[in-house]
Structures are given as structure tokens and as C-alpha cells.
Specification:
Blueprint: H1 7-18, E1 24-27, E2 37-40, H2 46-53, E3 58-61, H3 73-93, E4 98-102, H4 127-146, E5 150-155, E6 157-159, H5 164-175, E7 180-181, E8 187-188, E9 190-192, H6 193-205, E10 214-217, E11 223-224, H7 225-236, E12 244-245, H8 247-263, H9 275-279, H10 287-293, H11 301-316
Parallel strand pairs: 1-2, 3-4, 4-5, 5-10, 6-9, 7-12
Antiparallel strand pairs: 8-11
Helix pairs in contact: 1-6, 2-3, 3-4, 5-7, 7-11
């Protein structure tokens, strides 16, 4: 598995381990889990890939440049596109049965006519989203050229224990620092990380006829942002936020924080990229994943938040 020290990667590593699989994890960061072999390294290191892929049956590819607001277009392209395509060739060299590639519903950008299915127009709106679309296309193209079995998953807004975005939203709501940009009426489609783990496990074992296809992975239902944030407040026993700021103010604030935090080599608490969260409609149809993979998200938002907060309390104890 690549990206095994990330939020989804750690949960997927543990989930596959608990299902009885031998799991080897690769990431640029440390992230050892009991019962999982973890190596620190870069997926652009061809020799390291050859070492780790020997005897591998399935590769889950989650490594990407993602949360770094200061990342350049070149950095996104090098990892999310070029390195992903090279991974396909490495899988071919070592006889990997299936590569499960993590893309993103970000490739759709704002959904004009929700809910979107896999055939909806792809309109990525920022550098990360563009790189995920280009990476997905590069992986599928390389798979056709080399004859590699690949399944692409496009997760929606994943949340759960250990997720930096989830923790950030929980803290902002609990402290009263959360504010809206707009009226909070845009649609969000959260999916709990345990359901995403189930989707990856199912994609790895699905019949050969799913090879070359892409599937949206989303939660039980989409809901307006304000309703989602209210659920974050109820889960913590605090008042739901009501403050909103005008878009021009949000753009200026985002730019200022990006510049200030960039000079300090830190990630800003709010950026211009954050506007997507407040403005885009993201609602999806998961019928294809249900039909072909047997996937159906089981975790309601309220239950997922309860599990997330419970895991946080256990970690702090």
C-alpha cells in the first residue's frame, strides 16, 4: 500500500490486517501499526518499489500530494500523475493481480445537477483536483497499455478518527471560531472512513470484469453544509454556529493567511482553497459501486461522529 501513514491509509492498513492480509505500507512519513510492515520512502524510488512489490497480490495506491496548500503544480504533477503512472508499470513487472487507485470526487468540481454519477462532467477547480483527474487518466491509460488490472475509487468527503480535516472542523465548531462563507446551503456528501475501507477491500476482490472502471464512494446521504455542521455541534454538545462572512472578505483572509503561513512554512487554518467547502455542491449516486462491488455505506453521520469523538477520548486517556 502506498500512502499508508495517511489518514485513510492507516485505517485501511488496520482493516486489511484485521481481515487476515499481510500488509506492507509505504509512505514518506512514519506510521507504524502493530502487525503492519511500514517503510519510509518515496513512491518515485523505483528500486524501493521493486523491492516492496515482489510477491504482492494487490496494491492499494493512496499516496498523493493533497493537504499542502503551498504545493506547486509541478509537485502535484510529479506525484499525483507521473509517479502514479509509473506505479502501474511496476505492478506489471511484479505480476500484481490488481491495483486499486484512489482518485477523488474532486474531479467533478461543482456538481451542476446533483446527484452526480460516474458519467457526470468532470470540472476540477483547483490544482489538486486537476492533478487527481490527470492522475486517474494516466493510470487507466497505462493500465490499458500494459494490460494491468486497475480499479479506480473516487471517495467523497471522508471523515473519521485521525483525519486532520475532521479534527479541524470539530475544533472550530467547539470553540465558536467556525464561520460560513455563504448561507451553508450547498450540498456535502460525507462518508465515514470505515465505509471507505470496506469499499477498498471490496474493490480488491471484485470480479475481473470491473477492471478499468471507476466508482464513486460516498456516504448514506448528501446534506446541506449547514445541516452537516449542526451535526458536528450536536455531537459535541455545543451551540450550532451561525456567523457568516462575505466572500470578498473570505478571499482576502485566505490569501493573507496563505502568505503569512507560507513564510513560516506552516499550513494556514483557512485558505482560498477552503472556499470549495462552502460553495460547491457535492452529492453523488453510488449505484454503480453497489451493483458491481456490493458496496453500500452503512454509517450515518451521527454514528460516525460519535465513533470519531470516542476514539479521540480513548487516545487522550
Amino acid at each position: 500500500m502506498t500512502g499508508g501513514a495517511g489518514f485513510i491509509g492507516r485505517h485501511l492498513s488496520a482493516g486489511l490486517r484485521d481481515r487476515g492480509h499481510r500488509v506492507v505500507s509505504l509512505d514518506v512519513s512514519a506510521g507504524a501499526l502493530h502487525g503492519v510492515t511500514h517503510r519510509i520512502g518515496d513512491i518515485r524510488d523505483a528500486a524501493l518499489l521493486d523491492e516492496l512489490l515482489a510477491g504482492t497480490d494487490v496494491v492499494h495506491h493512496l499516496a498523493s500530494v493533497h493537504l499542502d496548500v503551498h504545493a506547486t503544480e509541478a509537485a502535484f504533477a510529479a506525484v499525483n500523475v507521473a509517479a502514479s503512472a509509473e506505479l502501474v508499470a511496476a505492478c506489471v513487472r511484479h505480476g500484481v493481480r490488481r491495483l486499486v487507485h484512489a482518485s477523488s470526487v474532486g474531479i467533478y468540481g461543482h456538481v451542476d445537477d446533483p446527484p452526480a454519477d460516474e458519467t457526470a462532467p468532470r470540472k476540477p477547480g483547483n490544482a489538486y483536483e486537476r492533478s487527481k483527474l490527470a492522475g486517474e487518466d494516466a493510470v487507466l491509460r497505462a493500465a490499458r497499455e500494459h494490460g494491468q488490472d486497475v480499479v479506480v475509487l473516487r471517495p467523497a468527503w471522508v471523515y473519521g478518527p485521525g483525519c486532520p480535516r475532521t479534527d479541524k472542523l470539530l475544533r472550530a465548531v467547539a470553540s465558536g471560531r467556525f464561520f460560513y462563507v455563504g448561507d451553508g446551503g450547498n450540498l456535502r456528501h460525507p462518508v465515514f472512513v470505515d465505509d471507505v475501507v470496506d469499499a477498498f477491500a471490496r474493490a480488491a476482490e471484485a470480479p475481473p470484469d470491473v477492471a478499468g472502471r471507476a466508482y464513486i464512494i460516498a456516504g448514506p446521504r448528501a446534506l446541506p453544509l449547514r445541516e452537516m455542521v449542526d451535526a458536528f455541534a450536536r455531537a459535541q454538545g455545543v451551540s450550532a454556529p451561525t456567523r457568516a462572512i462575505p466572500r470578498p472578505v473570505a478571499v482576502g483572509l485566505g490569501l493573507g493567511l496563505e502568505l503569512a503561513c507560507g513564510a513560516l512554512r506552516r499550513q494556514p487554518p483557512f485558505s482560498r482553497r477552503s472556499l470549495v467547502f462552502f460553495e460547491n455542491d457535492n452529492a453523488f449516486d453510488t449505484a454503480a459501486a453497489a451493483r458491481d462491488l456490493g458496496f453500500s455505506a452503512a454509517t450515518r453521520l451521527e454514528d460516525g461522529l460519535r465513533a470519531t469523538l470516542g476514539a479521540g477520548r480513548e487516545a487522550a486517556a
